[in-house]
Design goal:
28% helix; six-stranded mixed beta sheet; 349 residues; FAD/NAD(P)-binding domain; 22 strands; D-Amino Acid Oxidase, Chain A, domain 2
Length: 349
């Protein structure tokens, strides 16, 4: 592995920050180009949930991703000088008798016992929210303070490399020489999220644009330090405020808030609780997802040294840290990319 190579990373969200961090950790020089408009990473609630509730299955590679999240985000807490990584219990309100039985069947299995608490009588008759089928409490869940994390990440990269705040200009990029604005790089990594739609080298990838809206509500009656989950998540943010999300609208790049999004989220909030509330904020962002729900990682088939790290979807804050570490190791050591996430599973030429 060569040291002191110069890499250009395009995109300053969680993907670009994670890739830049691991390149710098391997004694590589990094220039990050970011335009300050990464709404997916900053609007996201930053939830890290180890379980897919519908059939009570574990999230993809969760046993590997979770421990490294703790290491990665705790590092950036030292830069931000306050808490970024926040463990929290998720209380799942079962949507049916079948879902409750799925939980009961798996709660004592070795693969699930670290995540699913054994359902107690109190859980089954939890009275502080609408709860017709009972509830279960989830361990191993957390959330990331997204805006302070992104700010801390970009600040650290700027201290240990270089940050250029601008839109990437493809007219000034030569993919054969890996040259951008008269500077030649050893590698270029695109981590643009939904911005890939404007990337002439990767725009044929089936990266889908999935819009999500959230609202923030104030409620003095709700009074929970747990995150409630049924049809939506209700995430406590302190001072009687709660983040509620999220909607899903596929195949759109429109990141504006809508009355329809607010109405849907208020209705879902009221499914969980009758607590009085007022809406104090609303946000929207567009997530990069793929048809098989796996990221897209690899080298362009025509241009050597041109890479992509994208398609992290709704699980971005959980999977980005370790996946970026693996990607950088593969990139620097000439190792094959994981077939499950490799770019070559799609045709782009």
């Amino acid at each position: 592995m060569k040291k002191n190579q110069h890499f250009l990373v395009v995109g300053g969200g969680v993907a670009g920050i994670a890739v830049s961090k691991h390149l710098i950790d391997q004694d590589q020089h990094v220039t990050l180009v970011e335009n300050g408009q990464n709404k997916s990473s900053t609007v996201a609630a930053g939830m890290i949930n180890p379980i897919v509730f519908r059939r009570m299955t574990k999230s993809w590679r969760v046993d590997e991703f979770l421990p490294y999240c703790n290491v990665f985000y705790r590092f950036f807490e030292t830069i931000a000088q306050h808490q970024l990584f926040c463990p929290i219990t998720i209380r799942r309100f079962f949507s049916s008798e079948q879902e409750r039985q799925f939980w009961l069947d798996k709660q004592d299995q070795p693969d699930f016992s670290n995540y699913l608490n054994s359902v107690s009588t109190e859980d089954l008759h939890f009275s502080r929210a609408n709860n017709p089928f009972g509830s279960g409490r989830l361990n191993g869940s957390s959330y990331v303070q997204t805006i302070p994390f992104v700010n801390a990440g970009i600040s650290w990269i700027n201290m240990n490399g270089n940050v250029i705040q601008e839109n990437f200009d493809f007219m000034q990029f030569d993919p054969f020489l890996l040259q951008y604005k008269q500077t030649t790089y050893d590698g270029v990594v695109f981590c643009e999220g939904v911005g890939v739609v404007n990337n002439p080298y990767f725009k044929r990838l089936p990266v889908q644009h999935t819009k999500g809206e959230t609202i923030t509500v104030s409620s003095k009656e709700l009074k929970t330090i747990e995150s409630y989950n049924r049809k939506c998540f209700i995430l406590p943010h302190g001072n009687d405020t709660y983040r509620v999300g999220a909607t899903y609208v596929w195949n759109t790049l429109d990141d504006t808030i809508t009355p329809e999004g607010r109405k849907e989220l208020e209705e879902k909030f009221q499914v969980v609780t009758d607590a009085a509330y007022s809406v104090i904020d609303q946000q929207a962002g567009v997530r990069p997802t793929t048809p098989d729900r796996r990221p897209v990682v690899g080298e362009h088939p025509e241009f050597e040294g041109l890479y992509i790290f994208n398609g992290l979807g709704t699980k971005g804050y959980m999977i980005a840290p370790l996946l970026a570490k693996e990607f950088v190791n593969q990139l620097l050591n000439g190792l094959p990319f994981d077939p499950e996430t490799a770019l070559n599973r799609f045709k782009i030429l």
